[in-house]
Amino acid sequence: MYDLPPDLPRLRILRTWHAMWLGRIDEAFAAAEQQQGEERRPPQPDWVVELSVGLGARPVEVHAGHCYAIGKRHRAISREQALAALAEGIRACAHCRPDAEFGVL
């Protein structure tokens, strides 16, 4: 049928060897999938403006791009747009303090 040894000790060794390689292949799959997922993820923006709810959503708070307190409704903005938003009176996040980073207190 197959070119496998007929005795149990050698069959166990073959099974162990193949299980080891299957584990290594599974680890390589997981690493490749994680890397591919990271490559597809867009880069983190430097600055973010959080938006209000509803139609015509308006900016309500400025955040640094790394801030953990960014809400679900937001969009990336440039440094200049973040400065302009703060100058217009849009609230700065109390957690990441973008106003302090810009020197606008």
> Helical region count?
3
User: Structurally, how many domains make up the residues?
Assistant: 2
Strand content: 15-25%
Mean residue pLDDT: 90
Sheet with the most strands, sense and barrel status: 4 strands, mixed
Ends distance: 81 Å
Structural class: alpha+beta
Order of helices and strands: HEEEHEH
- Give the total of beta strands: 4
The largest beta-sheet arranges its strands as: 3-1-2-4
Shape: rod-shaped
Radius of gyration: 27 Å
Please name the defining characteristics of this protein.
105 residues; 2 domains; 4-stranded mixed β-sheet
A few lines on this structure:
With 105 residues, the protein is an alpha+beta fold.
Structural topology:
Layout: H1 8-40, E1 47-51, E2 59-64, E3 74-77, H2 79-87, E4 91-92, H3 98-102
Parallel strand pairs: 2-4
Antiparallel strand pairs: 1-2, 1-3
